[in-house]
Amino acid sequence: MEVKVLSTNDPSYKDALFVRKQVFVKEQNVSEQEEIDAHEDRSAHFVLYDHGKPIGAGRLRPIESGGKIERVCILASHRKQGLGELLMNKMEEEAKQSKYPSVTLYAQLQAEDFYKKLGYTTTTTEPFLDAGIWHVAMQKALN
Questions:
Q1: Biggest alpha carbon–alpha carbon distance for the chain
Q2: Cα–Cα distance, 116 to 56 (Å, whole number)
Q3: For residue 119, what pLDDT is reported?
Q4: What is the DSSP string of 119-134?
Q5: Once rounded to an integer, what is the mean pLDDT over residues 69-86?
Q6: What is the mean pLDDT of the chain?
Q7: FRET partner for 85 with CA separation of 20 to 30 A, picked from 12, 58, 68, 69?
Q8: What is the pLDDT of residues 51-75, one digit of tens each?
Q9: 62: helix, coil or strand?
Q10: What does 43-69 look like in DSSP terms, one character per residue?
Q11: CA-closest candidate to residue 138, choices 62, 43, 80, 69
Q12: Over the stretch 7-51, which tens digit does the pLDDT of each residue have?
């Protein structure tokens, strides 16, 4: 397994979009217009590869309070193997190198426990809809 960190100018950026479209657009019915937004160019993109094939993706972008982790996904065929944690570790490592004091993310409700196991704390009192899917805001301080 290998995680690459790249920008939208990198030819491998298409691999990030491939995974995100599979998971969010095809599987979860998020519109492509919502999925590919105005924050693409100012984000660091992460692609998880298994023997050269893209199987996971995510992005990290700067916000006022630190970093925001977004678009974290693993292809259905590769879930429940600890790969989400591997991808998150790489994203947090990059956030620390960027000197972000903390990272924020919006977790789909079914993923809230996954993020709690990684040390994230839920910061919203009520779930909210984002792209038609229920989410909670979560945060983790970085040392």
A1: 41
A2: 20
A3: 96
A4: T-EE--SS-EEETTEE
A5: 95
A6: 94
A7: 12
A8: 999 999 999 999 998 999 999 999 9
A9: strand
A10: SEEEEEEETTEEEEEEEEEEETTEEEE
A11: 69
A12: 999 999 999 999 999 999 999 999 888 899 999 999 999 999 999
Contacts of 22 (CB under 8 A, 6+ apart): 73, 75
Q: SS3 of 141, please?
A: strand
Answer yes or no: are the C-beta atoms of 20 and 35 closer than 8 Å. Answer: yes
| Banded model confidence at residue 80, pLDDT cuts 50, 70, 90 | very high
16 vs 12: CA distance, rounded Å: 7
Cα–Cα dist 85/71, whole Å: 14
What does the DSSP assignment read for 92-124? HHHHHHTT-SEEEEEEEGGGHHHHHHTT-EE--
Distance, CA of 131 to CA of 30 (rounded, Å): 6
**Residue 34 is encoded by which pair of tokens?**
């919502």
Tell me the two tokens of residue 84: 């989400």
Q: Closest Cα to residue 91, out of 36, 43, 22, 135?
A: 43
